[in-house]
Amino acid sequence: MRQIARQLAQDSPPPGPAATRIRHLIRGHFTSIQQNLAAYLGLMLSADPDSRAIIDSAKQLAIHAVSEILGLAPTRPASRPTTWSSC
Prior knowledge:
By secondary structure, the protein is mainly alpha-helical. It contains 4 helices and no strands.
C-alpha cells in the first residue's frame, strides 16, 4: 500500500482547467483501487495504527492537491485534513 500511495503522490495532474486536473487525480485513484482491490479492502477494514497512518497520509495528499488546484490556502479550515484521532 505504501508503494501505491507513493505512485499516486508522484502522478501530477496535467496543466489545464481545474475540473480536468481533479478528474485526473480521481481517475488515478480509482484505477489504483481496481488494480489493487484486495489491498484496498484490507486497508479499509483494518484498524491498526499503520493502516490509519496510510489512509490519513493519502487524505492529506488529496486535500492538498485539490486545494492547490482550486487556489485555496492550506491554512483555511476547509483545506485542513482531519485524522482518525480527530474523528
